[in-house]
Design brief:
The complex is a heterodimer of chains A (about 280) and B (about 300). With about 280 residues, chain A is mainly α. Chain A has helices at about 10-30, 30-45, 50-55, 70-100, 105-120, 120-135, 140-165, 170-175, 180-195, 195-210, 235-245, 250-280. Helices cover about 70% and strands about 0% of the residues of chain A. Chain B has a two-stranded antiparallel ribbon with strand order 1-2. The chains are: A mainly alpha (about 280), B mainly alpha (about 300).
Chain lengths: ~280, ~300
């Protein structure tokens, strides 16, 4: 700290205060967009929400009204599909990672998960296109579910691993000492003990994929109809927002605000529930 | 280590047989299932890589390395060069990175040093988490309706063609989107700085600002850099928000305000319309490039973080 003696103490204190103020101001500025986005969506979106909007199908351009029922239902379908593809595999892989911590395969798997988590969502969309859409010859809800499932997988694996690591060894040892076989110990003792963490991880994963658009552009593709066949294209909330927002019709922009409101409420609601779950049933020992 | 206990617990052939009878799954096959689950993730990653390579083979064969340096992207004539998208991606991501650093670093210092606990910390932390939770299509929508008119007004003042959409607008949106990533890692590494170092500096008469500048930031610099690297990985691959505000032009951008395309946004725009195997393969090759670049960035960033937390 050369030359500090020459700078007067008053000036140093002044700089210190200025710096602190600057940090606080810039920190507050950085969350300003959050308030801008939320207020814009609430302002423009809430007036659109009514019975028809939530439970009716969209109408052609020019006709007033119409809803997003197909998109809401499609999002739910896609969540169910991605759940099926990611949760069983993800939980078992998470158990593997927490049980065989030191192994070479565990190290490589952990690396693979970190890489998987960083893959851009559009690339995952292309993979689902190559793996599912091309062989089957058409866009489908199934392919969208595969894409979202791949995106959700790392979240589930990491949550499971992190939670199970917190379960103390004494619990496992007590179970094994009673003669309970290893597989039962895992499934009936360790897994229930970490259930809340795994559950909140799954919810977080759902919140992550529910807002994804890019991987659905050429997999689930979107559809103006109500669809319950997973082999056919299906709509989703983010796809609807994208299509309506980039259209030239002001009517559709209004619908896009409404859909944004529904999506934000859903995603942020899930985040909130996740927090509650994690706080309420924390793994405590 | 733990499984050795279980190995002892199921020693004899007889107990194995009874277990199988009772539970349906033998202990050995339960272990095999776990092992396969772990292995399948590795296989998934390798399969993704090879699928991308195989699907982009026609373009790889046709253009070779010239794909990355070709200036012309003309689907009609079957000429595919990705330089414009590479430049667009790098320009928008690095500009976003610079803009977001102005905000993410203060947030890291706020949460990691000044207000580590208490109401102010909880408030800022939750707000940043909310920011991370907003879907990218909504960022794009917001950018389209709020930022595009603002940028247009700015462009009119500067005397540039007032398009509103363009690389600059997309980097503004990206900057907001990556603040949570860079700042959360920054906060972590700043709070990892040992307090005896800070206390030593304070006891020598240094002010808080001097401690931050001369002790905390140098100590945490590699971790902060890792956070920025991971945020860059996010920015490079971000698709929807960018697609909606970048203007979707396939020409080499002339300035930071000109419309352009990133690798991700061109895929989003053209993939469903791509006719012909060469067109499709070229778009998939863009995805392959994105995959490789983000993989390298993520592995580097994670390695730096592991090293940083191991030092403690």
């Amino acid at each position: 700290m050369k030359g500090m003696a020459e700078i007067s103490i008053h000036r140093r204190i002044w700089t210190d205060n200025l710096f602190k103020t600057l940090i606080i101001v810039l920190s507050l500025c950085s969350i300003l967009p959050m308030f801008l986005i939320l207020s814009l969506i609430i302002q423009n979106g809430i007036s659109v929400i009514n019975w028809e909007f939530l439970f009716h199908l969209p109408k052609p351009v020019g006709e007033a009204g119409g809803g997003i029922a197909n998109a809401i239902l499609g999002t739910l379908w896609l969540i169910v599909l991605s759940f099926v593809f990611s949760v069983p595999l993800g939980v078992f892989a998470g158990i593997y990672l927490s049980e065989y911590r030191g192994g070479k395969l565990a190290y490589l798997t952990r690396l693979a998960i970190e890489i998987l988590q960083g893959i851009p969502s559009i690339v995952i969309g292309i993979i689902a296109y190559v793996w599912v859409v091309m062989p089957m010859g058409s866009f489908s809800a199934l392919s969208g579910g595969v894409a979202l499932g791949i995106m959700m997988l790392p979240v589930v694996v990491m949550a499971t691993e992190e939670t199970l690591k917190l379960v103390p060894d004494s619990l496992r040892e007590a179970s094994l000492a009673l003669g309970v076989p290893y597989s039962r110990t895992i499934l009936k003792v360790i897994l229930p003990a970490g259930l809340s963490g795994i559950l909140s991880g799954i919810l977080l994963g759902v919140a992550r994929v529910a807002g994804e658009t890019a991987p659905l552009l050429f997999t689930a593709f979107g559809s103006p109809f109500m669809n319950h066949n997973i082999l056919k294209p299906i709509n989703s909330l983010p796809l609807t927002i994208f299509n309506y927002a980039t259209s030239p019709y002001p009517d559709w922009h209004t619908l896009a605000w409404g859909a944004s409101f529904v999506l934000i409420a859903f995603v942020l609601g899930l985040n909130l529930i996740t927090k509650l779950v994690a706080n309420k049933w924390k793994v405590q020992f | 280590m733990n499984h050795t206990i279980a190995d002892v617990a199921v020693p004899t052939a007889r107990s194995k047989i009874t277990l199988q009878y009772k539970w349906g799954v033998s202990e050995a096959s339960f272990r095999r299932i776990l092992y396969l689950a772990g292995l399948s993730l590795l296989i998934l990653l390798v399969a993704i890589f090879f699928s991308l390579v195989v699907a982009s083979l026609p373009a790889l064969r046709q253009f070779g390395f010239g794909f990355l340096t070709g200036k012309i992207w003309d689907p009609v004539r079957g000429e595919f060069g990705a330089l414009a998208f590479l430049v667009g991606t790098l320009m928008s991501s690095f500009m976003a990175l610079i803009i977001s650093m102005v905000f993410s670093l203060p947030v890291s210092i706020f949460l990691g040093e000044y207000f580590r606990h208490g109401k102010a910390s909880t408030f800022l932390k939750s707000a940043i988490e909310l920011l991370a939770g907003i879907p990218s299509v909504i960022y794009g929508f917001w950018g389209l309706f709020l930022l595009v008119p603002l940028v247009r007004a700015l462009e009119m003042k500067l005397g540039v063609a007032p398009q509103g959409v363009g690389i600059f607008t997309s980097s503004l949106v990206l900057a907001v989107m990556i603040i949570p990533y860079a700042s959360s890692i920054g906060t972590e590494v700043i709070s990892l700085v040992p307090s005896d170092l800070k206390e030593a500096a304070l006891s020598l008469g240094a002010t808080r600002f001097e401690v931050i500048r001369k002790v905390i930031l140098p100590y945490a610099s590699s971790g902060i850099f890792a956070g920025i690297l991971l945020a860059l990985g996010r920015a490079l691959g971000e698709t929807m928000a960018v697609t909606m505000v970048i203007g979707n032009s396939n020409f080499l951008p002339q300035s930071i305000f000109s419309p352009g395309n990133t690798m991700a946004s061109v895929i989003a725009n053209e993939f469903t319309e791509a006719t012909g195997s060469l067109y499709l393969a070229s778009l998939i090759e863009l995805a392959l490039v994105l995959f490789i670049v983000t993989m390298i960035i993520n592995v580097l960033g994670k390695l730096m973080i592991h090293k940083m937390s191991a030092r403690k």
